[in-house]
Amino acid sequence: MIDIYRKPTTTDTIIANDSCHPREHKMAAIHYLHNRIITYEMSPENKQREGRTIQQILSNNKYDPSIIKEIKHKKKDQAQEEKIKWAKFTYIGRETRFITKAFKNTKVKIALTTENTIKNLLTTRESQHKYKYDKSGVYQLECPSCNMKYIGQTGRFFKRQYQEHYRDYKHGSTRSKFAQHLLENQHSIDSIDKIMDIIHITRKGKMMDMIEKFYIYRETKLNNQINEKLTVKQNVIFETVVRQDPPQRDPFH
Prior knowledge:
The protein is an alpha+beta fold. It folds into three domains: 1-81, no CATH class; 82-123, no CATH class; 134-244, GIY-YIG endonuclease (3-Layer(aba) Sandwich), CATH 3.40.1440. Helix content is 46%, strand content 12%.
């Protein structure tokens, strides 16, 4: 028969119930502990002893020990559910909950991730700022005369994208929507550090497309964008974020 072994140095610490983590992450360890009991070939005595240990772990980490009963009940329900799809969201607090509520009555389940990884914690903001124009992603150009905004994306360096907008403006070309706005309204252009803001650094792909669409959507709602407004379509998730998030905040961080 199998039994659960714990090292003498084991602290029995899991994510505390009062920590700022999504509930799904907190429940992961509890599900793991419970799953071992029902999947391992343990004797009734060993199962009872392990059950008492789990109850103590829950109590030590500020959980109601009766939560195990909830898990057992949910597993019975899940066994009867049909196959579902999953969507991943980065957890930033209550704002994420407002978005995921839109999926409440659908067949889409939500998986949550966090940004407080060791890599992100050790990466300094100073180094990110120093080399930000040598990266790719979604950017914003702000007219220095009227503060209207253009949202764009690029798989090349941001500084090269700025140079193209600048060149179109200097040569009187309207290929660039931003240059077209400046020329038609006889507005001036400024240096890259004055008019270009880096919204989100990422690679080419669906993530970049989605972030660009969101910021165009948000600036359209504020009646403040230079992009083509006819391309903006109603979006339930975007609308939820716009209502709950201040304009100056980046919900993707």
